[in-house]
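Researcher: Go.
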Amino acid sequence: MKQYFHSVELDAELCCGCTNCLKRCPTEAIRIRGGKAHILSERCIDCGECIRICPHHAKRARSNSLDEIQQYKIKVAIPAPALFGQFNNLNDIDFVLTGLRALGFDYIYEVSRAAELVSEATRELIREDKLAKPIISSACPAIVRLIKIRFPELCGNVLPLLAPMEVAAKIARREIIKMTGIDDKEIGVFFITPCPAKVTEINNPNSTESSAVTGAIAISKIYPELTSKMDHLKVVEPIAKSGLIGVGWATSGGEAAAMLGDKYLAADGIENVIRVLEELEDEHIHGVDFIELNACSGGCVGGVLAVENPYVAQARIQNLRKYLPVSLNHLHDDQIDHMKWENELTFNAESFRLSDDIIEAMDMMEKMEEICKTLPGLDCGSCGAPTCRALAEDIVKGNAKETDCIHKLKAKIQSVYDQLGTL
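Model: Structure:
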């Protein structure tokens, strides 16, 4: 079986088997077995919903520590624009960027700069009218993985451009090598991330063979030290080189608005996103050129690795944009070619494969349908599977039994009781 990297991890000792995560997972990647949650690696998209919903903090996301930057001769920070929404009364993002320099980073390249380039490249591709419409943004890796698993017919609609994080890392590396002549291996590029899906994307990319990003540091990890450094700045360096278009990517609708047209749609929150994708799959959405989808409510500011309330952060980003120019970054030469995907997006067939043997898989599917008919169809989750169909799948795979369904178990007990009563 293929080996998967996941940033979302389970602490079994803290798990109480409460089924909250089971019901919220958008890809049915969680089961409760033996009173503990289990994550199906081939289905997890690292969206962070289980982290958000778990009342016992049994789910967590792994990311790099600030100390790890010391392994590299040149230390580069590429902060997500969502970082700027974490600070109160911020009217100049140079305070944040200078604070990152004070933490030990030698070079700062805002992801919002790359976002402006991706926006311009997307507008160009829309004008060329060569892509299947509506074009679905590829910026959120959790959404890309969701499409690969649940909506494979829409893979051809996903924008074949690298996300701003990846573009920022590639540009930063090229600029540093050109300026210093240093070996690429001595450059450590670290993304300051609001979500676990980006951590997974760095270690297991959807669109490239390997990422130009070295690692990711959670906003929640770096925030206390960064805030302390910002409070004691004596000089604020003029580092920022991005405008309101790039910074606007931090919140839902920011990327879509950067298309500078009116034929776009933006949705945030995994449940709302799924409804849009279902409508799109059923061909019920018309007259739209571009669709922006964010797994987190509010957009990237709603990531589980951020520290501020997403709606407060969203308001702060809107206020911050008043002080910014429209855009400071534009495409040149053949830059758009360097932003295109290396790999084609395809359905992750392993996620729902019953067996490697096609004959056996067909027999298992037939048995699964028969079992489904005998189950109550309540999708209550009491059996440890999110739906009755998921339980039927687990049964044919040998990972569960029919009496795991409490309704069938109750009926069986009642039958035994009735038989005993006639003796």
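Model: Residues 175 and 181 are 10 Å apart (CA to CA).
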